[in-house]
Amino acid sequence: MMKKAYRLFIFCFIIVLIVSMAGFGCTREVSYELTAQDKVILTQPSVCFITTYYWGYVLDPWENVWSTAYYWAFAGTGFCVNPDTGHIITAGHMVEISEADFRYDLIYTYLTDEYNLDDWTEDDWNWAYENVKVEGYDGGPYDREVYVQFNNASGGIPDNPQDDETFIRSEVIDYSGWDQRDIALLKIQPQTGKALSSVIVGDSSMVEVQDNLTIIGYPWTSDIGQENIMNPTITNGNISGKLMLGGTEVLQVQGDARPGNSGGPVLNSNGQVVGILTMVTDETNNYLRPSNDVKDILNKNGVTNKLGVVDEEFKLGMTMYRLKYYSKAIEHFNAVLNLNQRHILAQEYRSKAQEAINSGEEASFREGTKITIIE
After folding, report:
1. What is the pairing mode between strands 87-90 and 70-82?
2. 278 Cβ neighbours under 8 A, 6+ residues apart
3. What residues does each domain of the chain span?
4. What DSSP string describes 104-166?
5. Nearest Cα to Cα of residue 344 among 91, 88, 3, 41
């Protein structure tokens, strides 16, 4: 009887040992499926505030002296499509103005500033518009500078934008005007410590009426938006129709978008850009240029659409955060901030992760665990 019990004990011990050794050698796998909210959060750092600055000089017809500079400024939204090369997409009308309107406005502003014109007739004004010269600094119709700000943004242009590290001067590579496809391609110089985030441009031919959309941008219609630091806002909408305009397709959107949203990305449920905002009729009916038009201007200029190292690290950080592996999340958020010190969302979620650790909410992470992200 004793021998039988001993043999049973040895048998059970061996079984437990085998199971334990097998468990020790196995790689643990944990999967996480990104939610629609996650995908918007991951996309948000790629969105930027665009300010275009136009100026010109008026030649006084009586004194024969040039005026000081007169300025126009426009603000809107854009998004990065290649973080390695610094290429950015926005609306074409963000970098194009009517030369005639600009000239007339400067003539009117200068003459009313400098002279009492109460007795001027329509013929007097017609003479001025036909004869007064307006030029840019180097003799063109006007001068133009385009600036980009990521994360927090401020309205207007500082006195010395070259001394303000939040303003990045951009080059206009290509654009199609308002009456064409209304898309512009910009390029900025990537800088150390300011690595860029990006977003993937999707296939707009797959868009269907009633598809849900997410609109990201920098609307500036309120005094609060114009006079204070701005962050990208996020609203929802849906495709309400497709129509032809000037021989090209536009997508009609039912959703809240305001002045300042122009040029901003509109995302599908997969977090991919399916269009950019181009024009509005009111606060709820807006129109998009399809993302396949964006692909055309990228292909024309040899620009590859891709994500970068910052995007991958931020995605890993957010995944670890959602799984409550907060210490691991902080490692990835720190990696993001080593690449881009001004990555606001990495800063925010790193702080949240630390608060969760302090509250004892962290899940135990086994080294060697394989994390699978389902997109």
Report:
1. antiparallel
2. 91, 93, 182, 250, 262, 287, 288, 289
3. 40-45+200-300, 48-187, 308-374
4. HHHHHHHHHHHS--TT--HHHHHHHHHH--EE-TTSSS-EEEEEEEESSB-SS--S-GGG-TT
5. 41
Buried b (16+ CB within 10 A) or exposed e, 171-190: ebebbbebeebbbbbbbbeb
Minimal CA–CA distance to 337: which of 320, 358, 351, 321?
351
Distance, in Å, from the CA atom of 294 to the CA atom of 273, rounded to the nearest integer, reads: 9
For residue 46, give the DSSP letter. Answer: G
- Gyration radius of the chain over CA positions: 28
Contact 218, 101 (CB under 8 A): no
Using a pLDDT cut of 70, give the percent of the chain over it. 85
- Residues 66 and 138: their CA atoms lie apart, in Å, by 13
Band (232; pLDDT cuts 50, 70, 90): confident
CB atoms within 10 A of CB 67: 17
pTM: 0.86
User: Which residues, 6 or more positions from 276, have their beta carbon under 8 angstroms from its beta carbon?
Assistant: 79, 89, 90, 91, 183, 263, 264, 265, 266, 288, 289, 291, 294
Q: How many CA atoms lie within 13 A of 291 on its CB side?
A: 22
CATH number assigned to the domain with residue range 40-45+200-300, chosen from the 4 options 3.20.20.150, 2.30.110.10, 2.40.10.10, 3.40.50.2300: 2.40.10.10
Q: What angle do CA 157, 159, 164 make, to 5 degrees?
A: 75
The model's pLDDT over 289-316, given as tens digits with 9 standing for 90+, comes to 999 999 999 999 999 999 999 999 999 9
